[in-house]
């Protein structure tokens, strides 16, 4: 059996509904849809599963129009991959930081989620070269930093 003993200054997680915002934000991060973006670009590029990226041979053999579709698929895959690389850290720090600062953690989590959507959509923008559209969503890094600091402060407060 597992028991979590929460000191009084952290409140009762079962009766204080503020941690529910953290849980809802955490669950919401799982439905951001970066995999759906990949699917639409995969279909447009005509690449079947399990091809993870269009390779250089496919790119060089493609027409200019098809090359653009393959390129955008690769951008969508990279945006999704970057989401996966960062999601576990954001989720972990969101849940830990929410123990002490639930509303702040939830706010950082919402900003992080919005940034991830803007990042993915920008990465696949046809009018931006070299995936530069992703920079519009780079503010997710600030939210992620906030989540890290928030979780660190929670750990510090638990220890001291």
UniProtKB/TrEMBL annotation:
Keywords: Membrane, Transmembrane, Transmembrane helix. It comes from Aureobasidium uvarum. PANTHER family: GLUTATHIONE S-TRANSFERASE 3, MITOCHONDRIAL, MICROSOMAL GLUTATHIONE S-TRANSFERASE. It is a multi-pass membrane protein. The chain crosses the membrane at residues 20-41, 99-119, 139-159. This is Membrane-associated proteins in eicosanoid and glutathione metabolism. It is found in: Membrane. Its main location: membrane. InterPro entries: MAPEG, MAPEG-like_dom_sf, Membr-assoc_MAPEG.
């Amino acid at each position: 059996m597992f028991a979590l003993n929460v000191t009084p200054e952290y409140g009762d997680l079962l009766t204080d509904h503020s941690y529910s915002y953290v849980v809802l934000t955490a669950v919401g991060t799982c439905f951001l849809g970066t995999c759906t973006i990949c699917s639409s670009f995969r279909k447009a590029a005509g690449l079947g599963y399990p091809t993870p990226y269009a390779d250089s041979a496919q790119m060089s053999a493609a027409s200019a129009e098809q090359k653009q579709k393959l390129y955008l698929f690769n951008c969508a895959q990279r945006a999704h991959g970057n989401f996966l690389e960062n999601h576990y850290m954001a989720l972990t720090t969101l849940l830990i930081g929410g123990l002490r600062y639930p509303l702040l953690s939830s706010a950082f989590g919402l900003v992080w989620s919005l940034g991830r959507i803007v990042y993915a959509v920008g990465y696949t923008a046809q009018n931006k070269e070299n995936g530069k559209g992703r920079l519009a969503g780079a503010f997710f890094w600030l939210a992620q930093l906030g989540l890290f600091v928030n979780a660190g402060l929670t750990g510090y407060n638990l220890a001291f």
